[in-house]
Specification:
Rossmann fold, two-stranded parallel sheet, 7% strand, globular
Length: 119
């Protein structure tokens, strides 16, 4: 979600890529939350850092403690930025409550990206 938001808001300033520590699936509510604000999700899919190799990068951003602790060394990385967001996957007792949790997380991530990278 963070990569799609960064690309959408600051794609003219940054080239961004997304990868996790494990290959899974992109959560349908994450896709819907992005689509609701006009972000095209057609090409989004789950990848690991190994899938991006031998990509060299200046900044690695982690958004959960698990990723921060298990993030592999990335060649060329000059800086690591960590900002934890609560995982919305297990929030809410109903599908609509879970979707709202993804919306809330989307908005928190977007606000942080704008303050961190918008200058």
């Amino acid at each position: 979600m963070a990569e799609a938001l960064l690309r959408n808001d600051f794609g003219d300033k940054y080239e961004s890529f997304s990868a996790g520590t494990e290959k899974t699936v992109v959560k349908p509510h994450a896709l819907l939350a992005l689509q609701e604000i006009g972000i095209d999700t057609e090409k989004l899919y789950s990848k690991t850092v190994d899938d991006l190799a031998p990509l060299q990068t200046d900044i690695v951003v982690t958004v959960c403690d698990h990723a921060k602790e298990s993030c592999p060394f990335v060649v060329g990385r000059k800086q690591t930025i960590h900002h934890e967001f609560e995982d919305p996957s297990s929030k809410g007792n109903t599908p609509s409550e879970n979707l709202q949790a993804f919306r809330d997380t989307r908005d928190q991530i977007r606000e942080w990206i704008r303050s961190e990278f918008g200058a």
